[in-house]
Amino acid sequence: MTMVKHHINDELLMGYAAGSLPEAFDLVVATHVSLSDDARGRLASFEALGGALLEEVDATPLAEDSFAETMARIREGDMRPIQRPARPRAAGVFPKPLQDYVGGDLADVKWKSVGLGVKQCILGTAKDGATARLLLIPAGQAMPDHGHNGLEATLVLQGAFIDDSGRFARGDIEVADVETEHMPVADIGEDCICLVATDAPLKFNSFLPKIAQRILRI
Ligand code: ZN
Predict the structure, then answer these.
(1) How many Å is the maximal CA-CA distance in the chain?
(2) DSSP 179
(3) Sign of torsion, CA 17 23 28 30?
(4) Which is deepest, 53, 102, 104, 211, by most CB within 10 Å?
(5) What is the DSSP letter of 106?
(6) How far does residue 7's CA lie from ligand 1's centre (Å)?
(7) Whole-model pTM?
(8) Ligand 1 mean position to 145 CA, how many Å?
(9) What is the DSSP string of 110-174?
(10) What is the enclosing helix (H) or strand (E) of 49?
(11) Of 5, 3, 84, which is closest to residue 40 (Cα–Cα)?
(12) Distance from the CA of 203 to the center of ligand 1, in angstroms?
């Protein structure tokens, strides 16, 4: 069982339950939830809350067509269905939601080298302002020191990384925003593989990463 120490915040979980996140963040949340009993439990309560709100809507005298429209949306599956993500499978590095995007497991990822042994694979999520990528950081390797122009959600799938806010291992999620500046370093022992969603370019503090940024779309 994965022992998650760094949990997801309520904002992202609620956004997921409401179906209001960009697809890249949806993917990170769904993958985290399938690794964390805590997140699964909290998500269930948000979904129950969402269901209660729908009943509330049901009870209030709405204009006839708006009620019909709401029911039609539910029937057509526009609303996120109230269901629990599947429990993780015992085998494999990638939980099911991520396997569906990759079309397989870790061995099936088409990595592109981005220098210093770091590799990435940008995933085919919707072009809705956010990007999801897999990152492979060799054991002991530091990522360039950077800040953020938006949100960055990083979920560890293998190995671990360390920055000012702690050590993040499989199942742990770190959410960085415009206030956060960090230099994640992959822990020794095993290459660190993360799933990362961003909705804005990173802010690099040194010259070389700034040049590389255009090529890497990071
Ligand atoms: Zn960052």
Answers:
(1) 62
(2) T
(3) positive
(4) 102
(5) G
(6) 17
(7) 0.80
(8) 8
(9) --EEEETTEEEEE----SSS-EEEEEEE-TTPBPPPEEESS-EEEEEEESEEEETTEEEETT-EE
(10) helix 37-59
(11) 84
(12) 9
- What residues form DSSP beta bridges with 137? 192
What separation in Å is there between the alpha carbon of 21 and the centre of ligand 1? 19
**Span from the CA of 52 to the centroid of ligand 1 (angstroms):** 37
User: Ligand 1 centre and the CA of 159: distance in Å?
Assistant: 17
Q: What is the pLDDT along the chain (218 residues), one digit of tens a residue?
A: 678 999 999 999 999 998 899 999 999 999 999 999 999 999 998 888 877 776 666 555 555 566 566 666 655 655 554 444 445 444 689 999 999 999 999 999 999 998 889 999 999 999 999 999 999 999 999 998 899 999 999 999 999 999 999 999 999 999 999 999 999 999 999 999 999 999 998 888 776 666 667 666 67
Structure tokens at 86: 């599947």
